[in-house]
Design brief:
Oligomer: single chain
CATH topology of the largest domain: Rossmann fold
CATH superfamily of the largest domain: Response regulator
Order of helices and strands: HEHEHEHEEHEHEHHEHEHEHEEH
Number of helices: 12
Bound molecules: beta-D-glucopyranose
Shape: elongated
CATH architecture of the largest domain: 3-Layer(aba) Sandwich
Number of domains: 2
Length: 362
């Protein structure tokens, strides 16, 4: 009998603990009611996606949702099976930063059958009608900021004729964003390429020639090595257009190995995007000229707002209904503002805003 009483007491204690634990994960202020939201991120290997995932999880939980956050190590098959799993577990909304924008058709077919809504996060999901909303930064503008920086740094807009040598890098060919970054930058630079003020000695400008699969630093480093050997053995390179920071990091490594960073071989103008910690250090050291800051806190907050609206049966806030055609339909989008960053304004942008601590950048 005594044993029975103590088992009953233990069970009651367990029930109390479970109730307490549940009330902790579903804060009283949140309206999410504990509904499950699946968040599929591409990889942990790039800094930004870790931040995106963390912000999404924290903000969704604060709004009262349960979160299944998964990273797919840049493997399309892994991402597809993670999403299948989220569907099986009963997710109500899927938030997906795709690895290959074209490869989610089948799994999103399954999500649609269950009535699950889908938000494409940062990268457009292509080739399917089963994507309801898209939240990103203005990707064309990211490229424009990079192009304008080059134009102004060289004084091309003030009549400087050069000629200056330039090489152009492209992002991952399976990422829709890569084409927008490229278009924004090249539309800005083209008049100066056409006039001869900027000279691309390799002649390589098509995405097939300049794209770096998987946004890999090793890939951009290897291509930069090849370019330097083939075209710049007797002349310095003046400008490198890099669409993001992971590629810029590989380019810096290649330049250093080739002896850049000295008085007769100064670092070329080099662009980037994301303000990754490594690259902000490069900005401070004068090895990379600029980056584009995309505050992942803002994007995550927007997407949580979208999830909330969907769950309440209202319309999520969107500010663009024209730009992002995924091949089947134009996906209603919210575009956040990307911001120019360099060695002069990084403190205000990144430290004062609490994005990084000063110690992280040492
Ligand atoms: C993102 C960039 C990022 C790149 C590599 C793009 O889709 O918009 O911010 O640098 O992927 O992860």
């Amino acid at each position: 009998m005594r044993k029975f009483v103590s088992i009953a007491a233990a069970l009651m204690l367990l029930a109390t603990l479970v109730t307490l634990a549940t009330s902790c994960t579903v804060p009283s202020g949140g309206g999410g009611g504990g509904a499950l939201i699946g968040v599929a991120m591409p990889t942990k290997s790039l800094q930004r996606w870790n931040q995106d995932g963390d912000h999404m999880k924290t903000k969704l939980e604060a709004a009262g949702y349960k979160v299944d956050l998964q990273y797919a190590a840049d493997s399309v098959e892994t991402q597809v099976s993670q999403i299948e799993n989220m569907i099986t577990k009963g997710a109500k909304v899927l938030v997906i930063a795709s690895i290959d924008g074209e490869s989610l058709k089948g799994v999103l077919e399954d999500a649609a059958k269950e009535g699950i809504k889908v938000i494409a996060y940062d990268r457009l999901i292509r080739g399917t009608e089963h994507v309801d909303y898209y939240a990103t930064f203005d990707n064309y503008k990211v490229g424009e900021l990079q192009g304008k920086y080059i134009v102004e740094a060289l004084g091309l807009d003030k009549g400087e004729k050069g000629p200056f040598t330039l090489e152009v890098f492209g992002g991952s060919p399976d990422d829709n964003n890569a084409y927008f970054f490229n278009a924004g930058a090249m539309d800005t630079l083209r008049p100066y390429i056409d006039s001869g003020a900027l000279v691309i000695k390799s002649g390589q400008v098509d995405m097939e020639q300049i794209a770096i699969p998987g946004w890999k630093s090793e890939g951009s480093q290897a291509r930069m090595d090849n370019l330097l050997t083939a075209y710049y053995s007797d002349e310095n390179i003046d400008v490198v257009l890099s669409p993001n920071d992971s590629l810029a990091a590989g380019i810096v490594a290649s330049l250093k190995a080739a002896g850049y960073g000295s008085a007769d071989k100064p670092f070329p103008i080099l662009t980037g995007q994301d303000c990754d910690v490594t690259n902000v250090k490069h900005l401070i050291a004068g090895e990379q000229s600029m980056s584009v800051f995309k505050d992942t806190r803002t994007l995550a907050a927007k997407v949580v707002g979208m999830v909330d609206a969907i769950m309440k049966g209202t319309e999520p806030e969107i500010n663009d209904t024209k730009t992002y055609d995924n091949g089947i339909k134009v996906v209603p989008s919210y575009l956040c503002e990307p911001v120019f960053a360099d060695a002069n304004n990084y403190k205000e942008l990144l430290i004062d805003s609490g994005y990084y601590t000063e110690d992280q950048l040492k």
